[in-house]
Amino acid sequence: MIVHPLDRPVWSMLTERQAHLATGDARALRLDRGYGVFGVAADTGAEAQAALAALIPAGEELWIVEGDAWPVPPGAREVKRAVLAQMVAEGAPPPPRAGEPAIVALGEVDVAEMTALAEHAKPGPWGPTTHRYGPFFGIRGDDGRLLAMAGQRMLMLGMAEVSGVSTWADCRGRGYARTLIGHVMREMVARGETPFLHSYADNAGAIALYESLGFRIRREVHVLVIAES
């Protein structure tokens, strides 16, 4: 049976365009810890599951994202499970709207601000080099403060994930997320990539925003967070 790359997104990213960020072997892989917490096994067989458990960093967690609910590998313990809505953009990305705030490219000099914003907004796992996944963009206030940001994370053949969407609580309701997501989408499409993203399945507000930008739910995917037993 042919499996769509998005049915096993972590496996796809770590065996395709982002294989250079992977640690492990053909049985199981783990993302470079600086970038995040994702891990994946080749299958649910005993050998692959044991290899996956061996990749759990001491005292830390490993996040598994799969189309189907995944078993807890022997030697590991379940920390939590969650269900995500996996969404793929259909049609052309939305054009810029009149009066949108200026968007700036973010880089190494902005890491401290990006990290503080990510820790506040909690858009998903964020590590010391997560900003290096690819282009990140932000909106700054008149005083130079970074108010909001968005960028990318998982990359696979012909597809790129919108991620890291974050806004300070006192700046929400101003359309910053919409502006930044639209910009990231246009950047991806210009490179010949189809944008996709993940949202917690019970986050109706976020899903409604993404749908207004042209994303449609493709399927549910399952998150399993594990740690050493």
Describe this structure in words.
There is one protein chain. This protein is an alpha+beta fold. Helix content is 22%, strand content 34%. β7 and β8 (146-156) form a beta hairpin. The radius of gyration is 18 Å and the shape is globular.
Q: Radius of gyration in whole Å, from Cα?
A: 18 Å
Mean pLDDT equals 96
- Shape label: globular
Write down the CATH topology of the largest domain.
Aminopeptidase
The unreliable regions are none
How many beta-strand runs? 11
- As laid out across the biggest beta sheet, the strand order is 4-11-5-10-9-8-7-6
Give me the strand/helix succession: HEEEHEEEHEEEHEHE
What percent of residues adopt helix (DSSP H or I)?
A: 10-25%
CATH architecture field of the largest domain: 3-Layer(aba) Sandwich
Corresponding CATH superfamily of the largest domain: Gcn5-related N-acetyltransferase (GNAT)
Proportion of residues in β-strands: 25-35%
**Whole-number tally of structural domains:** 2
Task: Describe the secondary structure blueprint for this structure.
Blueprint: H1 9-15, E1 22-24, E2 28-31, E3 39-41, H2 46-54, E4 61-66, E5 76-89, E6 104-106, H3 111-121, E7 136-140, E8 146-156, E9 159-167, H4 176-190, E10 194-200, H5 204-212, E11 215-228
Parallel strand pairs: 9-10
Antiparallel strand pairs: 1-2, 2-3, 4-11, 5-10, 5-11, 6-7, 7-8, 8-9
